[in-house]
From TrEMBL:
It comes from the Bacteria. PROSITE patterns: HTH_ASNC_2. The keyword Transcription regulation applies. GO terms for biological process: regulation of DNA-templated transcription; response to amino acid. This is Lrp/AsnC family transcriptional regulator. One of its GO terms (cellular component) is cytosol.
Length: 161
């Protein structure tokens, strides 16, 4: 599907304000409401727009201690990766996990109740058969940037095309 400047502008606007009204969106991209809304529906049907959601501030609900962890597995085979990834899916404290290349196997974000709770979790994994060779822990001291992709910088303004 080829996207033109109107489609791209719609995606940019909806990425930071999914609740914008049809008329405000049409005004922002300088189209009338019907053609603008037809473009939105076309982007939805094509799977480019997957859905709409609210960004929830987890700190407003429960204070968590974010920890980034690098994991190296003992063995590098499909069974070892599958076993570790099953553990990741079964652990609610893990909020992000990616497999990476170059020295470590996984990089993940753990959000525990405390540093002590995080360490107890790691200790459980080390005595289990999940196969962790070594891990490196990085306690987050400050969030410097936390945004969704496509979010404009504070100095940028969304302007009509």
């Amino acid at each position: 599907m080829k996207l033109d400047r109107y489609d791209l502008k719609i995606l940019e606007i909806l990425s930071h304000d999914g609740r914008i009204t049809k008329s405000k969106l049409a005004e922002a991209i300088n189209l009338s409401v019907s053609p603008c809304w037809e473009r939105v529906r076309r982007l939805e049907r094509a799977g480019i727009i997957e859905g709409y959601s609210a960004r929830i501030n987890p700190d407003a609900l429960v204070k968590r201690t974010p920890v980034w962890v690098q994991i190296e597995l003992t063995q590098h085979n499909a069974a070892s990766f599958a076993r570790f990834e099953a553990l990741v899916h079964d652990t609610p404290e893990i909020t992000e996990c990616v497999a990476v290349g170059g020295g470590v196997d996984y990089l993940m974000k753990v959000e525990a109740e405390s540093v002590d709770a995080y360490q107890r979790l790691i200790d459980e994994w080390l005595v289990s058969d999940v196969g962790i060779e070594r891990y490196y822990t990085y306690i987050v001291t400050k969030a410097v940037k936390r945004e969704q992709p496509g979010t404009p910088r504070p100095s940028e303004k969304t302007t009509a095309l």
